[in-house]
Amino acid sequence: MKKVSFNMIRSAGIKTDYAKPEYYFDQLDKVRAADLVLFPEYWMVNSIIYGMNKAIFPSPATYHLGHDKIEMTRAFKATYPHRIPKTLIYGKNPYTIERVLEEFHYPFVAKKAKSSMGQGVWLIKNDQDWLEYVENHDTFYVQEFIPNDRDLRIIVIGEEVVGAYWRVSEAFLNNVAQGANFSYEDIPEDVVQEVQSIANTLSINHAAFDVIVTEEGFYILEFNVFFGSEGLLPLGVKLPQKIEEYLNSLG
């Protein structure tokens, strides 16, 4: 299988040709000659899969759902509604500003539709916090706040989970970029297996799922298409190797 990648860092260790995103339209011959295009920029995806009829990795579903929390949530609500926290998505108007406060008590979580690494997520604790969010967003993405000191990160490559670990923090965000620590004890394998099944159902093949586990069950907060792999190192997992194994299995 002939491959071309648009991301040298994420493709390090994978046998592939390379192309630069900034010169995309000057390197279309490389795309046309490839059987598989690795890690294109999001803005390239439609022209590659629809214009040139080429397969991509991560999958189209991974890109399209992972690019926008709103579309991601809608997909989860349509397929696994019991696995996401209560979530409301509204356009901004006087009615919806009040409706959110009728549906949620403080504190609750508000997010930006497109963000990662713990950015664009706020804990709304009072009227002032809410009005500041309202002022800066035309679309509301608000979610039930589930108190916790950790979340479970589950990393899916291809059709399997390659690693899972806790991200532990006393702060609101359990994100390593925001100061969280790793823990590898007492990983709930039933949760890991179900998240793997959910990923396979939605054709998500390169993602880090962030999950909160409670006594009542577990809830998927979101998944990230591009994620850090430092949490896999203590597990002995080499991400490029896992990716290449999966790509080679495709034939």
UniProtKB/TrEMBL annotation:
<dbReference type="InterPro" id="IPR013651">
    <property type="entry name" value="ATP-grasp_RimK-type"/>
</dbReference>
<dbReference type="Pfam" id="PF08443">
    <property type="entry name" value="RimK"/>
</dbReference>
<feature type="domain" description="ATP-grasp">
    <location>
        <begin position="74"/>
        <end position="251"/>
    </location>
</feature>
<protein>
    <submittedName>
        <fullName>ATP-grasp domain-containing protein</fullName>
    </submittedName>
</protein>
<keyword id="KW-0067">ATP-binding</keyword>
<keyword id="KW-0547">Nucleotide-binding</keyword>
<dbReference type="InterPro" id="IPR011761">
    <property type="entry name" value="ATP-grasp"/>
</dbReference>
<dbReference type="InterPro" id="IPR013815">
    <property type="entry name" value="ATP_grasp_subdomain_1"/>
</dbReference>
